[in-house]
Fold these 4 entries.
Entry 1:
Amino acid sequence: MIGNNVSHSKRRTKRTFDVNLFKRKFYYVEQDCWIELKLSAAGLRMINKVGLDAALNNAVAKGYCDWKDIKVIA
């Protein structure tokens, strides 16, 4: 998304609004491995609320990600 920085003198310059993404590692108990995900702050809260397995299954079912997008760390 693109918008304006507005200074005290009302001078406007272009700026971009970046997505709030994080790169995090999780231990996936069901597969007995570590995985790395790139997710938003809302995704982190969802994992804390319902658990990693339920959140991943829900995201794949809704089409937010695919199983091949999940990076397995050896």
Entry 2:
Amino acid sequence: MEGDQTNRWQVQEAKARFSTLVDTTLEDGPQIVTKRGVEAVVVVPYQQWLRMEQSRKPNIKELLLAPEARTETLVPPRRKLARREPPTLQ
């Protein structure tokens, strides 16, 4: 998306035309706001943000600091292994 400037807003323009930024976000999707020419934030529609939050997996810090135990995500499920027959001793 380097060459596409249709979804990029300078912070001054975004502040001056905030209502237009919101309308464009709702109609066309995420909009990038730049600060001094560097991408700073992305404005996304609320429903899209909710979907992103629900699909996000917690990182290890969040798991360790959580008040409730979340061990089911720390230990991978065990696989069924094929077992060999024991050798017969004579």
Entry 3:
Amino acid sequence: MGVFIGINREVRRVYGFDEVSLAPKDLTVDPNCVDTSWNFAGFKIKYPIIAAAMDGVVDVKFAKTMGKLGGLAVLNLEGLQTRYEDPDKVIEEIINASPEESTHLIQTLYKEEIKPELIVKRIKEIKEAGVLAVVSVVPRKALEYGKIVKEANADILVIQSTVTSVKHYSTAYEPTDFKNIVKTLNMPIIIGNCTSYEAALDLMDTGVDGILVGIGPGSACTSRGVLGIGVPQVTATVDCAAARDYFFKKTGRYVSIITDGGMDTGGDICKAFASGADAVMVGSLFARAEEAPGKGYHWGMATLDKNLPRGTRVKVGVNASLENILIGPSNLDDGSQNLIGALKTSMGSLGAKNIRELQLVEMVLAPTIKSEGKLLQRAQHIGMGKK
């Protein structure tokens, strides 16, 4: 329902994770009996959680570990891993730079040319571990690098930019023909990012297998602050999931919706699935893993934008191994560890035996729910809660 913010200026009310909650009903399920698997493009993936294509989060070693644990990790083929033979040394420079120097240093380091032979090398290194090799490129390089990716036998290609649309206008160059890319490469492809029903439908019509949802919600992404664009993730996911369901009824082809960014806890991830996601893509939570190359730091992909290079190095710290963060055991109480444990427990409490059923649970508006319990803590702090 729209509201007016001034004369003849109507806006739509939209929602983020902190404004909604999930409502249990009359059925509960043993968390050990729920199925968290994700069927995508012929692959059965144990956990529908993906580590984002950020150089401070995913390198070859991280991708191998994540794959063996049952999730997916996306390696950025236009990042440091394919620009430098020894990316660890370059990442060390970024980690050790002062806050004032870090953004300029990152932008400088990313000016190094991408080396096609390193694309092949990194994919083969991941494949040697017997896990799925998932890699990302930007739209304008998708066909060129995509051919190298397919030749190297990567399993899934992610084509990703800040805002991605089929309908694009330019007088300087030909718009990216996503339909031709999908047809030419003939491999599982995920495209993003978008936030609207119409954009999602257009992208699905190109023949892709998955759509990334989210513009600027991540802690290391500055798109919302710098560009002023974005839609809170609950509404964005609901809208794109509606497009998925309509497209499936119309064509019989199911295209996965992947909520990308903005999730800080296991509870946020559960809400993303309840909003309609088939999988989620996470950055900052995994940047905290002991295995993450950034050693507690990460930075956004927008540093690659030649028109407006931006992004910031964020310090998130290191609090656990990747295994602890993904599947536990947890020693934190904020929901930032044991993401699968949180997901299974939530599904059980909501009576959802699989992800599809979780997509259908009741959601309620609850903007104050996070403050419940904190009122008593504050009262006790000032002595009001004592008898």
Entry 4:
Amino acid sequence: MMQEYDDAVLDCFLENQGQLFPDPVAETREAAEYFLEDCMAVVAESAAEVLQYFEEIGTDIEGEDEKSILEADEVFEVGDGRYLIVEG
């Protein structure tokens, strides 16, 4: 599945990449897009899609509440209801 990373997603990642990586991995939107494509980051349209994603890849989220999953380091809140999931 090919992901499209719009400016809102790229800016969110650039501003918040420190929550997942100790040092910046991208300085520009172009570099961010390349990095996200390279690690096959996923844009989820809702919190429910984030939960579905983790279930589909086999992450044990039994007993985890939605809030703790959405606060995981690899989950970035874009700010428009969408979430970016980056597997470090």
